[in-house]
Amino acid sequence: MSENGRLSAFGLRPSEQRSPGSPAVSASPRPRVPASAPLLELCSLELKLGAFRLGPVSLSLAAGDYLVLLGPSGCGKTSLLKAIAGFHPTAAGQLFVEGREAAGLPVHRRGIGYVSQAADLFPHLDVAGNVRFGLAYSRLSPLEKLERFDRIVELVGLEGLLDREPATLSGGEARRVALARALAVSPRLLLLDEPLGMLDKQARPEMLETLKRLHAELGTATVHVTHEREEAWAVGARAAVMRAGRVEQLAPVGELFRRPATRFVAEFLGGANVLAARFEARPDGGARAVLDWGGFDLAGAPGFSEGWLLIRPEHVALAALGEKGAFAATVRSVSDRGSHVEAVFEAGGGNILRAHLVAQDGAGLEAGGSVALRLTSTPHAIAGDVRG
Amino acid sequence: MNERSGKRLRLLVAGALLAGHVANYAIQALLGHLHPIGFLRELLGSGKVDDHELFQMLLLAANLALGPALISGRGNLMLGAGSMFLILAHAWVGVRVVPDPLTSGAALVVNILVLYVGTRLSERLPAKHLAAFAASYFALFFIFVEIKWGFLIPALKGRTGMGNAEPLFLLFVMGLCACARSWRLLAWFWAVTVSFTFLQPYAWESAVVLCFIVAALFGARGALRSPTALVFLGVGLALAGLVLFPVVAAIMGESPQNLGNILGDERIQKAVGRTLVTATASTLFLVALAVPLAYALARLHFPGRSLLLAAIDVPIVIPQSVAGLALVRVFGAGQPLGGVIENVFGVRFDGTLWGVCLAQVFVAMPFIVKAALAAFESVPVELELSARTLGASPWNAFRRVALPLASRGIFLGAVLAWARAAGEFGALLFIASNSEVETAPVLAWNLFGSVGSAQAGPLVAVLLGFSLAMFFLLQLATRTLPRPAVAQNADATAAAQRAEATA
User: Which CATH architecture has domain A271-383?
Assistant: First the structure.
């Protein structure tokens, strides 16, 4: 499957495919912000939480955007979300919402919806009471409030749950109620903290569908925090990879996957071979990556002489001996995964290379055997200190 | 033996017994030994019958006891033989030990009943039941012997309050037969029996307390219904019994007429009314101030917070008399602060209802503050933050989320504070104990001092009953308030935060 096919299969919305810098075209039925001003803008925002320092973080989000904040546990993504919501004070930098400085605004004047990992439903109110809670503070007329309530209940699919007590809801149901409660007040921005966290496997796809449908229908700009890269694929949006309180890379998910900016991003998104390499410019304007055991042509000059070479496992294939670009390797292990064969090779110098081979190629491999391999696609160069 | 022929045999035996008895009766009457109606008249009148007549009567009783058992198919050979033995034993031995024929006859019937219940128990239930039943019977017999003759425990002799030991014994044995099938009933039976034999003259009071303990022990449910836990429950209930006993005794010790008289007394009516009004006013005042204090303590951390928390407990740890003296020294007439308040607001504390409320507020404060603090601490702050993201101001988040979720705890605290205020006595003695402003507890003391405990007793019973009724009513009302926030929400959030912080 090609990368593009994969993207569309995971429901990448047209607005995410625009080139950077073009004006945001929102699918929202009621765009609230002129397209020129970013809805949310963090300028070198820093937080101080006890001994933990977060930032500086710079991000911007246009109306109708869906941004996934991706990172391992403890990288500060939830804290950043809470700072945007106003639960944590900021230490330095600026936080703009609709072009206005928001860092000093109290939580209830920010117009930012927040759905926590625990749903945090009000246990003394039934589902309807929870969803209706924030409408008391909106400027809508009573009739509009009723319409809004009905629309959200229908969109989120809570019709059968309205008179239930929160304690009787399943994890997925509670999360949907929390989502409806946050969306009922038409927030400018919706913050979701691990919306699939602590849900069982059956409830996850359903919740993802709900999230995507709500975003398509309401167009509320959303920041979705997660440590699961599959979620980023599934919602098919832009994603920011965070590490230790900083944003490592912000790009559409497919680009993060194919052209990671750092070794951390490459390894966090998973599966790829990341090998230390030197890069040399060629006289014809191209460039070449040199490893201990071979060299590979690059698409263009990387602009640095040392770093990492990213080789995706599905770009490794068997080659005939003597074929141009072929290199020798020893088979370490082979495991049949049905759709493909996962093989681990040892190229020269003890370097391990994982590969996904098509089934008929992998069938004849045996551990210990010698083979010739080639790359079916140009590898990606990543800058970095290889000695560190 | 199959079922049908067994039934036929039983019917045959029962019929033979009945026929033999009727024939015997007829023959005795024909021979002039026995006048059927005169015999009954004698028995009911003077109770003096001769041995011959007594034997006839015993036969009749045995027949009445044995016949239904045989016909219903629930008798067996042992029961039949045992009954015959009992009849003979009673006719020739029991009659000489217990000369009263009516009692002797009743004893026979009851003993046959014991035999019948024993055989039924051995057929249907584990041997433990039979052993407990037999042990209980012999224990009752021992108690009976001791009450009648006092061989081993002289103190027990004649200790029934009913004159005769025999009828009481028979009554208890019949009760034992009725209760033998279930451990719980057996325990209740012994609770009552022990109360009425050993714990006179507090039989009723101790029976109530012991039955409560038995009910608690046998009704105990839980994941860990281990013998250890049950023994601990029993030990703990002994403590509860120690507290309950005087209370029940004080209430049950008074006759309804006495209570009625007491309730009609104007001085007492006024004192009770004063107690209700002042305790309610003090509680309302406390709630108005303690709820904000508790919320601030639960949500804010500030220098001196732990000192403040400790200070809140002071009214609990200092003696009431010290509290009363301290209040008089500060708020009393002629004291600096008391004087200022009297001059500026015209409020005087000495010997006034203001003083009553002041003392009540002082002693009841820790209860409401602690309860409200615990209640607010149990409301996860995340719920309030959620409310804030939905547009609620801090005040609205408090009003619509924290307050409703803490309301049950606050209400319980208010109930405790109310009870504490209504029951306050020590501090009141110092600041307001004159008869114009005396509350019910102070009145009890004043009555005790002037006319003794006989006059104060009924008042105590009334006060106790009233306080308890009020307390249980309020506990009941609490159930309508929302339960505290679901703990798992808070746990999950806390766990997530810990994970975030450690990594």
Answer: Beta Barrel (2.40)
For chain A, the residue count is 388
CB < 8 Å from B in window 194-213 of A: 194, 197-198
User: Taking CB atoms and an 8 Å cut-off, how many pairs form between chains A and B?
Assistant: 109
**DSSP notation for A199-217:** --TTHHHHHHHHHHHHHHH
pLDDT tens readout for residues B258-298: 777 777 778 888 888 888 899 999 999 999 999 999 999 99
A331 — pLDDT class (breaks 50, 70, 90): confident
Maximum CA pair distance of chain B? 109
Contact A64/A219 with Cβ under 8 angstroms? Answer: yes
Q: Mind listing the pLDDT tens digit for each residue in B393-448?
A: 999 999 999 999 998 889 889 988 988 888 888 888 888 777 777 888 888 788 77
Same domain (yes/no): B172, B195 = no
- Interface check A146 vs B, CB under 8 A: no
* pLDDT higher than threshold 70 for residue A388: no
* pLDDT tens digit sequence for A242-288: 888 888 888 888 888 878 888 888 778 777 788 777 777 777 777 77
Phi first, then psi, for residue B225 (nearest 5°) are: -90, 55
3-state secondary structure of A387: coil
The Cα B91–Cα B53 span in angstroms is: 11
pLDDT at B163: 55
The question of ipTM being above 0.95 is answered as: no
Name the percent of chain B in helix, strand, coil, to the closest 5. Answer: 80, 0, 20
CB B241 within 8 Å of CB B202: no
Disruptive mutation site among A77, A79, A122 for chain B (greatest number of B CBs within 10 Å): A122
Domain end position, chosen among B253, B279, B308 = B253
Interface contact A138, partner B, CB < 8 A: yes
The distance of Cα A49 from the centroid of its chain, to the nearest Å, equals 24
Please list every residue in chain B whose beta carbon sits closer than 8 Å to the beta carbon of residue A76: 500
Pick A174 or B451 by higher pLDDT.
A174
B167 and B93, same domain (yes or no): yes
Q: Tell me whether strands A340-347 and A306-311 are parallel, antiparallel or unpaired.
A: unpaired
B401 vs A119, A122, A138: nearest CB: A122
Q: Is any Cβ of chain B less than 8 angstroms from the Cβ of A327? A: no
* Contacts A133 to B, Cβ<8 Å: 387, 390, 392, 400
Contact B74, B121 (CB under 8 A): no
A200 to chain B, closest Cα gap in Å: 15
Q: Of B160, B181, B202, which residue constitutes the final position of a domain? A: B181
> Nearest Cβ partner of A118 from B397, B493, B501?
B493
Q: Element (H or E) spanning B329, and its range?
A: helix B320-331
Q: Hey, how many other C-beta atoms are within 10 angstroms of the C-beta on A149?
A: 18
**Residues B161-208 pLDDT 10s:** 545 677 778 888 888 888 888 888 898 999 888 887 777 777 778 888
Q: Is the dihedral of CA A185, A187, A192, A195 positive or negative?
A: positive
Specify whether B107 is located in the same domain as B202: no
Which residues form the domain of B25? 3-181
Cβ–Cβ gap B389/A122 under 8 Å: no
Q: Which contacts (CB < 8 Å, 24+ apart) does range B170-177 have?
A: B170/B103, B170/B106, B170/B107, B170/B110, B172/B140, B173/B110, B173/B111, B173/B113, B173/B114, B173/B137, B173/B140, B174/B110, B174/B113, B176/B114, B176/B133, B176/B136, B176/B137, B176/B140, B177/B110, B177/B113, B177/B114, B177/B117
Q: Do A133 and B396 touch (CB under 8 A)?
A: no
Same domain, B60 and B131: yes
Check B390 against A182: CB less than 8 A apart. Answer: yes
Task: Compare CB distances from A138 to B389, B391, B486 and report the shortest one's residue.
Answer: B391
**Cα separation of B404 and B381, whole Å?**
14
